[in-house]
Each structure stands twice: as structure tokens, then as C-alpha cells.
TrEMBL record:
Homodimer. Its EC number is 6.1.1.21. Keywords: Aminoacyl-tRNA synthetase, ATP-binding, Cytoplasm, Ligase, Nucleotide-binding, Protein biosynthesis. This is Histidine--tRNA ligase. Belongs to the class-II aminoacyl-tRNA synthetase family. Signal peptide: none annotated. It is found in: Cytoplasm. The gene is hisS. It is an enzyme of class 6 (ligase). The lineage of its organism: Bacteria, Bacillati, Bacillota, Bacilli, Bacillales. The keyword Nucleotide-binding applies.
Length: 424
């Protein structure tokens, strides 16, 4: 019986995987420039971590988690996002005590959410994200947004829209919360069950509801920006000034709220404005979360971060018709004629590889024509042909597949010759 892949997951096969490798490498280079260091945390965590940090009014916690009991009766959850684990690790490893501050980290790996699969929405997907913990400087908010923007730009995307908002500090949020409750309460019966729950717990999240998006009361809801106290306003102004200094075009959308209940001050998303992108246009989202380290048992340490999925980045590249510059070649393919030469290439191939060259030979007893075809398929730069006569004279014929030029060289010199040729 054939067993198929689980819903909402995908195999990334050779031919496609090179794109992923290219993207991952580039993202790591960008992080290096921006001075964010990689952190690797477990794929599963105690369920409580997500209940406490992501928040119990979010879609993630209410309906998307892969939660299971292990054989020791512990409740564990496959990580649905990265911030919770990074902040847990920050607290657990007492990173607030490290000499170099703020702590700037990035992660890249699979996340799991039980969602209804559709374009740009998977049950297993790969997120790249960064977190900067330990600074309250609005310049770091701008830096994090700049990193995300730079990343998309570096792959050639041009139809991008950066949207920012401020969620204010606690004082501003309390005032806004009152106003939101007064706004929605009289008609809350017309909203979905989730929104009814959110009214008391966290009315701001009503604004992020996917079901009630079109309800007229959404558009007339009181804007958080009118409730920002002086400090929050000043903070937001600084972020905007810095973004302008970084030449990052942005729009302000006072209805932009983010998943985490702990988000304060800056919230942002980058969307694709390319035509034909479909219903889901958000490429990444992030913001500032002051208070999360304390919630997880650590000292006060404000943080800001964002996360993007590679899947949505790939969709954006496709819609903008961008081909990543992926070159797949090998240095040399060994072609042999006759049994003795064939046997000889077993050792010779290994010698080439040990010398640092990428090389391949035939394993299917192909005729010479078939071996040349195989070399072509691998985009070999050079083919080295070894026949009975050459072997007897300790020679080998090196041919450039690009120019067609041929040259007979000493077998003992093959490595040096190829290294010299492929150095350009
Ligand atoms: P959405 O509103 O699309 O559900 P979200 O608010 O759940 O997004 P976040 O939790 O902020 O998204 O995750 C950050 C980023 O991760 C998203 O902007 C998107 O790029 C990506 N992402 C989220 N869920 C998925 C998924 N199921 N499949 C692929 N990518 C995803
Ligand atoms: Mg979601």
C-alpha cells in the first residue's frame, strides 16, 4: 500500500532544494552583516511555554498547535513559532548577563501549525526570524525592519510594502482597550465566537480577526494612534524618523495588530504588492514585545523581532518572475573506455574529490556517448577521458565542455591541471 505525504507538508526535491539553499545562505550572510547570531532551539517545547508567551486569545494557541503527550505524560508541542523558544532560552541561559548587549539572534527552521492548507499556508513551514533583546532604543526597531526589508530586496523583489503601527505602552493600551470595548460591546453578538471571547480578554485582537474583517464596526473602531501617550508617540516618531534615514518607504496602518499578546510599541508587516499574489499577501510580520522575558521568569528585557516564511518568499519570487542565480555545475566528469580504465577511475575520482574538486563518474556501464550525456546533464565544466591506450601511457585527455578544447596531460598532473582551469 502506498503511503502519501501528510496534508500541508511538502517534499523539497533536488532541483528545488537549491533555491532553499541559496536563500538560507543569503539570509545568513545578511544576519552576519547586521550582526545577528544563529540560535538553534528544540523542535518541541513544553506546551506551557506557548500558552504563556503566544497568548490564549491567538489563533495559534486556540486552534493551531500540534500538542501531544510523551511517554512520560508531559504535554509537549511542536513549535508553532520561534519567539517563545528564543526568549525561553534567553532567560534560561541568563543571556541578560552576557557582556555584549543587546542580544541579537536569528533562527531558521521548521514550524508547525494545524491550519487549513492553501497557497502560502502549510502545516509544516520554514521560518526565518530574528530577535533583538535588551534594548529599548527605537533605532533597533528600525534595524529589525531594515533587516527584513534588505532580505527581500536582496532576492530581487521590488513590489514590497512596509506597513507599521504603534501599539503603544501599557498606559496607552489601557485607554485604547476601554474605547474598543465600548465600541464593540453593544454589537458583539454579530461577531464570531472568538471575537466574543476577545472582547473581555484582549479586544485589540478583534481587529486581527480573519472572519469578521468586513464588519462595518471594524473600519470605525477607535485608532490606537489617538490613544498613544506622550512617551509612546515620541517612540513611534523616532522609529519613523530612523526608517526614513534608512531609506525605507513605509505606510502607517492603525489597524495593524500582531498575534502575540505582549506586543508593545512597534508592530510591522511587509507585504507583496505584486499582482496575482492571491489572498495572502503578508510576507512577514513582527514587532516589539516588552514584558515577555518577565512572563517567562526572567528579568526585565525588552525585545523586538520578526518572522518570515521561506514558502511565502518563494511565492513572491514566483509572482514577480524572479529566477534566483543558481549555478549547478561540477568540475570534472570522468569518462572511461574499457575495463582497466573503468577500474582505474574509481581511485582517480576519489583523488579528485580529496583535492577539493567536485567530480563524478559512470556507475551504469554506459557507452562513451551515454557518459558524455551524463556529464552534460551535470553541467560538467571538464570531461577527462581515459582509454586503454592513455592508461598504458599514464596520460588522460581533458576536454572543456564549454569551449571544446582538448589537451592530453600526464595522469599525475590531472589534479593540478583541473585546479588551474577551474580557478577562473
Ligand atoms: P497569517 O495572518 O497569515 O496567519 P500569522 O499572523 O499567523 O500570519 P505569524 O505568526 O506572524 O503569522 O508568522 C510570521 C510569518 O510566518 C508570516 O508572515 C508568514 O510569512 C509565515 N507564516 C505563518 N503561518 C504560515 C503558514 N501556515 N505557512 C507558511 N507560512 C506561514
Ligand atoms: Mg496564522
Amino acid at each position: 500500500m502506498q503511503i502519501n505525504i501528510p496534508r500541508g507538508t511538502q517534499d523539497i526535491l533536488p532541483g528545488e532544494v537549491e533555491k532553499w539553499q541559496y536563500i538560507e545562505k543569503k539570509l545568513k550572510e545578511i544576519c552576519d552583516k547586521f550582526q545577528y547570531n544563529e540560535i538553534r532551539t528544540p523542535i518541541f517545547e513544553h506546551t506551557d511555554l506557548f500558552l504563556r508567551s503566544v497568548g490564549d486569545t491567538t489563533d495559534i494557541v486556540t486552534k493551531e498547535m500540534y500538542t501531544f503527550e510523551d511517554r512520560g505524560n508531559r504535554s509537549l508541542t511542536l513549535r508553532p513559532e520561534g519567539t517563545a523558544s528564543v526568549v525561553r532560552s534567553f532567560v534560561e541561559n541568563k543571556m541578560h548577563g552576557y557582556a555584549s548587549q543587546p542580544i541579537k539572534l536569528y533562527y531558521l527552521g521548521p514550524m508547525f501549525r494545524y491550519e487549513r492548507p492553501q497557497a502560502g499556508r502549510f502545516r509544516q513551514f520554514v521560518q526565518f526570524g530574528v530577535e533583538a533583546i535588551g534594548s529599548n532604543d527605537p533605532a533597533i526597531d528600525a534595524e529589525v525592519i531594515a533587516l527584513a526589508y534588505t532580505a527581500y530586496k536582496s532576492f530581487g523583489l521590488s513590489k514590497l510594502k512596509v506597513v507599521i503601527n504603534s501599539l503603544g505602552d501599557t498606559e496607552s493600551r489601557v485607554a485604547h482597550r476601554e474605547a474598543l470595548m465600548a465600541h464593540f460591546a453593544p454589537n458583539i453578538g454579530e461577531f464570531c465566537h472568538d471575537c466574543q471571547n476577545r472582547l473581555e480578554k484582549n479586544p485589540m485582537r478583534i481587529l486581527d480577526c480573519k472572519k469578521d474583517r468586513e464588519h462595518p464596526l471594524m473600519k470605525t473602531a477607535p485608532s490606537i494612534l489617538e490613544y498613544l501617550n506622550e512617551e509612546s508617540s515620541r517612540y513611534f516618531e523616532k522609529v519613523k524618523t530612523y526608517l526614513a534615514a534608512l531609506n525605507i518607504p513605509f505606510e502607517v496602518d492603525s489597524n495593524l495588530v500582531r498575534g502575540l499578546d505582549y506586543y508593545k510599541h512597534t508592530a510591522f508587516e511587509i507585504m507583496s504588492e505584486a499582482e496575482g499574489f492571491g489572498a495572502i499577501t503578508t510576507l512577514c510580520g513582527g514587532g516589539r514585545y516588552n514584558g515577555l522575558t518577565e512572563e517567562l521568569g526572567g528579568p526585565e528585557a525588552p525585545g523586538i523581532g520578526f518572522a518570515m516564511s521561506i514558502e511565502r518568499l518563494l511565492s513572491a519570487l514566483k509572482v514577480e518572475n524572479i529566477e534566483l542565480p543558481i549555478e549547478k555545475t561540477i568540475d570534472c566528469y570522468l569518462v572511461s573506455l574499457g575495463d582497466a580504465a573503468k577500474d582505474y577511475t574509481v581511485g582517480l575520482l576519489h583523488t579528485l574529490r580529496q583535492a577539493g574538486l567536485s567530480a563524478e563518474r559512470d556507475y551504469l556501464d554506459r557507452k562513451i556517448k551515454g557518459q558524455f550525456k551524463a556529464a552534460d546533464r551535470l553541467h560538467a565544466k571538464y570531461v577527462a577521458v581515459l582509454g586503454e591506450d592513455e592508461l598504458k601511457n599514464n596520460k588522460i585527455n581533458v576536454k572543456s565542455l564549454e569551449t571544446g578544447e582538448q589537451k592530453e596531460v600526464e595522469l599525475s598532473e590531472l589534479v593540478a591541471v583541473l585546479k588551474d582551469f577551474t580557478a577562473y
